[in-house]
Amino acid sequence: MGIAISVSDYLNQQGIPFKVVSHPYTESALQSAISAGIPKQQVAKAVMLQDHEGRHLMAVLPADRRIRLKRLGEIMERDFSLMEEVEAARSFPDCQFGALPALGQAYNLPVVVDDALSDQERVYFEAGDHQLLVQLEKPAFDKVMGKDRHGRFSVQPTLDYGQRRWL
Question: Where does the record place the YbaK/aminoacyl-tRNA synthetase-associated domain (predicted)?
């Protein structure tokens, strides 16, 4: 399929330099990082949320972290829940199902960015299919996300009593 038209058009219109990185087919941003040999903390994933009024929000966080909905709610001053994948996909008509670019700006979606991504020299995100990542250098990523809300709302997953538990 290639890079989503909305993503390439947005980046080009904003004068944002980017590269495209190919990798074998994967089902998640974390798998894409592993498959492409990119540090997991440099790959941004998009998590689609909605509040009690049905307003949508894209949370952008490192692929190796989990969202803390309570903390995000405190930052945004409203509660959120995860959107169903089928409903989230409706906002991305030029993307393959499940391959959401962490570039809500290209789809007129409000975005909140986890500050853990600010520590990275470059950031990658799904290009709209399951085999390409968009690569942005830190200045380009900062320019794209500069007007959006920022905060620390993710956490590293931890193991608890031998079971995987997201704390």
Answer: 23-139
